[in-house]
Amino acid sequence: MPELPEVEALKDFLTEHLVGHEIVRVLPVAISVLKTYEPPLSALEGHEVTAVRRYGKFLDLETADGPHFVTHLARAGWLHWKDRLPDGPPRPGKGPLALRVALETGAGFDLTEAGTQKRLAVYVVGDPQEVPGVARLGPDPLADDFDEGRLAELLAGERRQLKGALRDQSLIAGVGNAYSDEILHAAKMSPFKLAASLSEEETRRLYAALRDTLTEAVERSRGVAAGRLKAEKKSGLRVHGRTGEPCPVCGDTIREVSFSDSSLQYCPTCQTGGKPLADRRMSRLLK
Asked: With left for phi above 0 and alpha for psi between -120 and 50, is residue 157 left, alpha or beta?
């Protein structure tokens, strides 16, 4: 799933390639991608893109005197830029193509989604805050006013485990499964540690890991072409998706806890005092 760093890089890429250009056609291929119907997709046509913004994992294309095009790429969605779009309208079918946006230059982008779980979402709205997922977002962890004190306030009273708290978009915007693993590894904390139990020193360590991990990932992604961002993300991950590999910090074997629809990775030596976590939902440290 694209998370804050990749969506930030897409925002920068689209700012360079879209702003100042006119949307001449928006072609839906998979109707399931559309989450709003008024105004229609055609309301975007004939309007110039004036800005591209990021809200958590949402991308927002603002148009001059027209609506906003807001999209969430979900788990398996992606944006593919094309300097020259194919001639003729795309054909509906069983392929991954969900929607195409064409500019007056002949360039544009496709939104695609792999797999059978269709969660890619597109909204056409007068204001991004009309999108429920945007309206409920917590603070952006890379915002200038997001300091250690703000993190402490957010975690105070949180009876959830750190892994779940970090992934909650209404608590902190933009962090998903992969970067929550990376942040907790950098902070040397168990994913199952209760968020409200952090000491002042632990909060300071988690804050530093959160900011540093995301900032470094954004810098790695900056300037990378849209089509190569997924590979760039994977190459920069130290523990997530690396079950069975040696930890780059201590050399211990990276382990995994699997859930019904996801998994987490961690290093026992770095994060759990050398003790493996039971591989089941709501597990505790093994005695």
From this structure: left
Helices (runs of H) and strands (runs of E) counted in the chain? 8, 10
CA dist 163 and 177 (Å) reads 8
pLDDT digits (tens, 9 = 90+) for 185-197: 999 999 999 999 9
What is the residue whose two structure tokens read 């009273």? 157
- 143-168 burial, b at 16+ Cβ within 10 Å, e below that, comes to eeebeeebbeebbeebebbbbebbbb
- What number of other Cβ atoms are within 10 A of residue 41's Cβ? 20
CA 157, CA 178: separation in Å to the nearest integer? 25
**Could you tell me whether strands 47-55 and 68-72 are parallel, antiparallel, or unpaired per DSSP bridges?**
unpaired
Report the half-sphere exposure of 147 (CA within 13 A, side-chain side). Answer: 2
Note the pTM of the prediction, 2 decimals: 0.92
Cβ–Cβ under 8 Å, residues 9 and 59 = no
Q: What is the pLDDT of residues 202-255, one digit of tens each?
A: 999 999 999 999 999 999 888 777 777 877 888 889 999 999 999 999 999 999
Alpha-carbon span 270 to 176, nearest angstrom: 21
